[in-house]
Fold each of these.
Amino acid sequence: MSDMVKLFVNGVEVEVEAGKNLIDAVGAVGIEIPHLCYHPALGADGNCRMCLVGIEDGRPPLVPACKTPAQEGMKVLLDAEHIKKIQRDVMELELINHPIDCPVCDQAGECSLQDYYMDYDQRESRMTVAQVNKNKKMDFGCGVVHDQERCVLCGRCVRFCREITKTGELGIINRTDESRVNIFPGRPLENRYAVNVVDLCPVGAMTSSDFRFQQRVWFLKKSPGICHGCSKGCNITIDHNRQKYEDDIIYRLRPRLNQQVNGYFMCDEGRLSYKQQNENRVTQVLIDKSEASINDAIQSCLAKIENSSSPLILVSPNCSLEQLVAIKALADQIDAPISGYSDGYIKAGDGDDYLIQDDKSANRAGLNLLEIDTTKAKFEERLATADLLINFDNDLSLSYSDTELKEMLSDTVIIALSSQKNYLTDLANILIPLAAYSEYAGSLINCDNILQTFDKALSKNAPLDDAAIVAAKLGGPMKNATDIFCELQKLIPALSNTELQNIPAEGLNLNNSEASNVTA
Amino acid sequence: MSDRSQLISTGKPFAFDQQRDKEFERLAKRYPIRESMILPSLWLVQEQEGWVSQESIAYIADRIGTFASKVYEAATFYTMYHLHPMGKFHICVCRTLSCWLRGKQEIVDYLKDEVGIVPGQVRDDGKYSLEEVECLGHCGTAPVVQINGKFHENMDVEKLKVLLTTLQ
């Protein structure tokens, strides 16, 4: 924790972090200073003038809060009449050419301009001249659609592309009231983080072609989650909604701040990975391709396990730690070898030095922690002698071609437990649907050895069991979450004196804790 | 102000000629930050072609090693960069205080009504283009007319008539 200083806001003493700018410092204790262009990840730009405050120490009457560090004894004025006037005037300036199309704007409900109008302006327009017309629905590439008329020219998107992705596709063209954000002709957005400009945009000028006109944001339930798209484990907000007579489905993923993992952003691929949670799901229990009840399927599985002389259990590197513990316990119980072979999840060379990782699985570090073998040689050797394969959601079609799989599994009975349809679920003798990650709670260890937990986000109309529960039903000894957590505490010394709910929201860095020997 | 964001493409790749190439390299040594070359480069383009095309902006950006969006910003911000072809003779009439008081409007009206050159436009035959500009710094000899960079001081309609006949 850095040093604290005491300062006064509207005459009331507050204690804030020293050195931070006033927006962040005062914002941390719940006092809002309105701002459009400032964003903590992009730094202060000072172009919008919305954050002008008074400081009673002989400085000029108005200073931008985004560029003013908090200091001891500072007297900050926010509610004085001349500050309110400045805020109203800036709002009036922003609204001169802003179309009042909130009823059809995707940003409505999470729009800074809308909120600030209600908080600081609330006046009728005095404008009698025609508004400046600019371009609408411009395709900037990468799924970003731009409306120049809604833009307030804060430059966040421009700075994001120049400072964060260093690709600089966007610029502010022209000047005065003709200014507008644009791409250079023929050089559209071309980076893997481009859709972040949609989140950054304080108004509805940047919209995502994927989310555009899909939902009003106030209908969306916002649940925290962890992206399972790669081993980074970016923190996300899962925006989902159950429309009348429909199922609870995800409409978009947005990055959620975690300084230790992903900061404010996420990659576009991860952002669109919600589609796998909505589409192509396994929903029906099948025994030899015919529909059956889950109980029949479990009985049938138990019989197959009973009759098998050498079963093999395969797990997915996306399984949570809890699931891995439960499945490993099941493997020990039925005396089956367990493999986590999943080379197909690794796309060599695909990662970058920012967020995207080569490894497209969420919990490979967890596999290693539980000492589950992941080598190809061992998996193939065991599969050759196995007469039963119990596959917990490992998409083998990523690692093998269909013909290879068919040949390898020709004389093996397959029990597939899967959330997604793939080639293996077609081959399966018994197919049991599993919950996807937004439908259960669990914990993961990311590529930087940070343990993060996530909660169940969606409540489906027909809830599906997650892999840990199915493992218990198949005879695994880990029957409940407490058993599993006790086992995890044994495996991860850093957890030994804590409860699951006490794991910090930012995640537990296993490298920093005394338990750094766990993965050694 | 008008919207200057619509760039015109020539459909042909752009490159500096030998003289501008040399000048570019000479100027580049002046600036510790290479991006400072954006404005001088745009001048070199305009000197060479008379106007700034989409291809030339892309060329400059790549030559300097900066984002095309940054050159695009600068070229559209400064109205003295012409983003479409100008007339063979580009006439600038100063419209700031001294020239205005000393009768620039008569000159502009003459050009508009008698010669058919509308301010901000190129005459259909491409021979002339006219622009009213801010102070050219010749206030003591107002009004001033600048044709293709050359100054003509103490102008009036009669002198202009004679001057135009010399432009071939």
Note: The first strand of chain A starts at residue 4 and ends at 9.
Amino acid sequence: MMERAMEQLNVQLNRLTRSLRRARTVELPEDNETAVYTLMPMVMADQHRSVSELLMNSKFDVNYAFGRVKRSLLHIAANCGSVECLVLLLKRGANPNYQDISGCTPLHLAARNGQKKCMGKLLEYNADVNICNNEGLTAIHWLAVNGRTELLHDLVQHVMNVDVEDAMGQTALHVACQNGHKTTVLCLLESGADINRPNVSGATPLYFACSHGQRDTAQILLQRGAKYLPDKNGVTPLDLCVQGGYGETCEILIQHHSRLFQTLIQMTQNDDIKENMLRQVLEHVSQQSDSNYQRILTSLGEVATTNGHKLLSLSSNFEAQMKSLLRIVRIFCHVFRLGPSSPNNGNDMGYNGNKTPRSQVFKPLELLWHSLDEWLVLISTELEKSRGDVTTSSGSEIASLLLKQREVDPSAPEANSLSTTVLAPTLDPEVAMKTSEAYASSEDVISMTANRLSAVIQAFYMCCSCQMPQGMTSPRFIEFVCRHDEVLKCFVTRNPKIIFNHFHFLLECPELMSRFMHIIKAQPFKDRSEWFYEHLLAGQPDTDMVHRPVNENDILLIHRESIFRSSCEVVSKSTNEKLKQGIAVRFHGEEGMGQGVVREWFDILSNEIINPDYALFTQSADGTTFQPNSNSSVNPDHLNYFRFAGQILGLALYHRQLVNIYFTRSFYKHILGIPVNYQDVSSIDPEYAKNLQWILDNDISDLGLELTFSVETDVFGAMEEVPLKPGGTCIQVTQENKAEYVQLVTELRMTRAIQPQINAFLQGFHTFIPPSLIQLFDEYELELLLSGMPEIDVMDWKRNTEYTSGYDLQEPVIQWFWEVVESLTQEERVLLLQFVTGSSRVPHGGFAFLMGGSGLQKFTIAAVPYSSNLLPTSSTCINMLKLPEYPSKEILRDRLLVALHCGSYGYTMA
Amino acid sequence: MSETYDFLFKFLVIGSAGTGKSCLLHQFIENKFKQDSNHTIGVEFGSRVVNVGGKTVKLQIWDTAGQERFRSVTRSYYRGAAGALLVYDITSRETYNALTNWLTDARTLASPNIVIILCGNKKDLDADREVTFLEASRFAQENELMFLETSALTGENVEEAFLKCARTILNKIESGELDPERMGSGIQYGDASLRQLRQPRGSAAQGKQPCNC
């Protein structure tokens, strides 16, 4: 008994020492599940001696599958490349074809991880190379995915079918092509893989190579005669290359299938294809050789011409054809600007290496421009004819019918291709007969073609400009616009939307803009501001800038206590381009960032700019508005600060941030480059403005004013005589030249005195806002853009309104008036306020503090006898609305709105 | 996916106002007579893919206004046309007499190789006929034109007119007389390689077998 016990103890002791010496267990647990986790780490580390020892006397099942994926230890060994363990397990009867839960055999895992030795041993033990996993993948698929060419080479001899398909019908060649493994592809092809094999959706190896832009692989396939086949949905390899923007792969495809070149060109007409990708591809192909460059541009020109002609066909779909034409021309211009590939003449705008004019590529487009020209000439003839028609009244019956038709259908100018078809059935048969007998009326031709011709003009402009250095308008285009001036004006007068949709050239060419300015200015503010922003932000990658996450280095770090100076510093350190892309502000020692902080910065900063301590701006007479201080030079650095102020205002406008400054009417005019007039003087000196008004209103011949063209000014206490024009001190002011005198003296007070400040301010402002764009607005609208729409409290307004010449609050007309005001939009209320007071803003503290020409002057409504069609008028210097005694609320509302929309800007002496 | 074809031919339809040019085009494209037809303003556009001599050809057809006031606009479309239908009205001698002018325009403004087919339209109005078949065919012969009398109303000979013109152009390409690659030929290659590969052998039989007329 004792002996047995001793013996057992010895065995245990022995085992213990062995275990301790090796720092592991020396005996496998009874159950497989525990045992397998003991063995697994040893297999992974290929500790084959230990594994062998443990397995020696155990009943462990070497094919025991464990874990979530139900793998055997042989899987583990194959996966990790533990070749000694692998052999050991195989010797102990492990099944080389055992499949885990996803159907993978040890060979799959070895192949996937490129375990060369393991693969060899597995094959020795008769592992089946043709087994598929649950997705249908075989060992050669795994080798092909990862480009293990050497292993594949060994394995492929054992494979029954090199074209074995997975569940999607994909062969090893498909996956090798998709991943661009050149040598693997070659190996598979040499082993007899089917080069044109389609998968279940009809995708071939070439299709796969193209879908991922695998240029070299596509090259190999094409060289070996791969067919160019689309998939079952008709998607072709070229489609895929273009979708992905793979220029190099496209180039290869075209080299082997030259007809694809035309297909590529035709793709520019396809709205579904991403323009930037297609452009990228065409740019690449065009750079391969000078002949490619010429050929692409010539072909694009031909396609554009056909498209343009289709656009000019009245039955075509305007929207689709227009978009298509403009897209093609945009791509054309991009490729053209890139220039031919030869580096030695890259900058030469005129000729390439072969001395063929580069402008040659524009030739096909000439057909379209020629048609455009002829169309415009035709329209001009029609215009003349329709003028003749009005006087002779021949055919005016039809013309008026057509006009009526157009009034009924307000969408007619938009969907004008419909108007002919709509027309016929609605007219009675007799007239319809006449219509079809007669010419289509001239009116009709113009209204139906205006949009289409304008879109072609836009395309023409793009083509003209891409031959010019940036920012210059081509003389040919200027000449074109001048030649067709009358017709173009006719187009935009009838349908001003044309300006905003197609006449972008106006914004880039001030000489042409001036011709259309009066029409543009008459368009709704909303349309113009949309146009303004659309153009201002054109070329910026994202229009919603302020929210953009910004690089840490680009954050403007501002010190709150010295906000003006530190802002000035950081802004001058940054580049205009960066500031345009987006601004992020952080105050020193604070966490906050984002939109709110940016808004706060503009808010505080704009208050600082007008801080009297800096002496940059002075208050106007009524204390609500500001303009540059003529004595700002007390601050020696004042012009730099003015430039900075201009930059901040420009930046705010650029990013649609409102600032908390209101400038004088005259300063807004200065920003816009509009001449000031004597009425603007009232904002800084109302008394003086009245005197100027008096001179103009009265005959001064016999008053003996003894005025000359000069004034005395006070420069820091010393009086100086300043001539208004050369020799002005000797020129008498007379009844005849008094208007000039008033203008000059106004300019002196308003402009010349602060010219350097204005110039510096504008220099800063124009870094963000081009003068050509800002001139779309008048001074009132500029205020609206910079400082926003003021809130108007109608209750407060009503409380602080006085009535005169027969009106009182109880009058029905007054009741109606306030009801109408309640129903107006915020914008219309501002217009009304502007109409009556000349200012779009309610003074600080409300309507009770409304200022007139001489001190407080409440809003006043005066009665005027009603006569038909009479509009309300106003006297802005006494804040008086002269409201006719309208017979009904409807008429009042109607007339008031007419007056607001036509008359709120610009003064008429009513 | 874009349609595929072997060639694209640019066609013109020209002739005096009211001869039924737009109706011919409409009949050809829609297989219907266009009832309440207005005067064409400027130039209209239509296209159809046809099978000619085993080849698919896309006809891009520019239907021009016949009215004098549009003449300079329509002329600007002539360049680069491969074929033209010159249309007159068999019930109107005036439209027949104008043919010489139209022909001069086409020969001087379009490609010198332009293939023109003369169409005496409104064949269905035989009772009001003012131009005999014989004199018109003599005119055609003298001016090296093909000739057909057509009816846009019944559709008679409409398809034939377009196809005949297309076939002649195709023959000229095959004989080398016309070079599609030359600029302004009015002919373009389609991506035929794609089409042929997509329908491997056999399916081409759906088109008529080459007929070399």
Note: Chain B is about 30% helix and 25% strand.
